Nicotinate phosphoribosyltransferase (Bifidobacterium choloepi), 447 residues
Amino acid sequence: MDYSPALMTDMYEYTMLDATLRDGTANRKCVFEIFTRHLPEGRRYGVVAGTGRILDELEKFHLSDEDLKFLSDRHIVSKETVRWLENFRFTGNIRGYREGECFFPNSPILQVEGTFGECTLLETLLLSILNYDSAVASAASRMTSAANGRPCFDMGGRRTNEWAAVAAARAAVIGGFQGTANLLAAQLYDLKAIGTAAHCFTLLHDSERDAFESQVAALGRDTTLLVDTYNIEEAVRTAVEVAGPDLGGVRIDSGDLASLAQRVRNQLDALGATGTKITVTNDLDEYALASLQTAPVDSYGVGTKLVTGSGAPTCAMVYKLAEREGDDGRMVPVAKKSKDKATVPGRKLAYRSFDGAGDGTVALADGEHVVAGSEEKLAAFPATAPDNWRDLLVEFVRHGENDSSWQGHDAIVNAQAHHAASLAELPVTAQSLMKGDPAIPTDITVL
């Protein structure tokens, strides 16, 4: 689909641009920040995902002649603003939490520095990507923790918008999933693709045996056969008769999964198919996965609950101006004072502090530290930061140029590994599925 990311925005971003170009403030230097005021109710942490996709979109963030004509014909912006937009590209700086990092309320997840004109145009695109991708990655993290080492796979493409399905597959891998059923996501990001056959394949054939024989002939004995179309016990027997004891796997998609998995495991072992794996699907979430920890299940396919954030489809992130250039050229911290929506003035630094876990060998995070202040004060602060504080901010874009190490397949693999390390740094209560407060507190200091 040929589209411009520069139109994946709300109209008021362009009307603000138009007004500020008229009054002369569009070129004021600004710092915007993305953060969430709170985690979804009862959640202990969130997981950052989507930054790599943001960098991909920034490379295409420009307007075609057709786009400019649309803005002009609809009288959204003036002719002068159209001329300003003709050669637009983002020339500022972006830094923030790396993908896979755990985040908490008021964590400055992304900082965007540039002129007001260029920064304001990015708001909706940045928020839509980070809010959704981070919601999916957060759900995926809870699910993989509950799966306790057993692999989870994304099967949620049919339960969401077709483009969201691609984003969800990528975010799920950052959260710990091992692959996806979505072929476009697998192609774009070089992810592992999974899938064999649905119930309709069995129903198409004159018998279940015919269906199994067809699938094995096409995909080999290592394939996974779906065994709950009719009678599971008969299907398992037929599957082993058709594929032999080297059958790769069976999938169960309905019923009492724990009980059925145990019965199927016993039957497979009795038939000599001791190496055949059992995959279960059917509206799984982290709570269902936790309940299956003692069942003889080898892997999980997760759909609806994954792509909808398991009840939290957004992270409620916001994009707020923290600092702007004054008439005298100096940067001025700014903040909202609105009831229940007040913000902290000034650009931010972010650190995570670590303390011993009690055994003298393992350091666990004991707090998030957000430090706000003027550019000058923040420049001097790192030299005074305690030794047990780790800087959380990395640079993604400098003077409009992307750091490509944060894009592509390797960046996703690295983000998955970083998430595992970040989660392991948190107190063990972070992985509890019981509702509770954030795993570590966030302290905000204004210099």
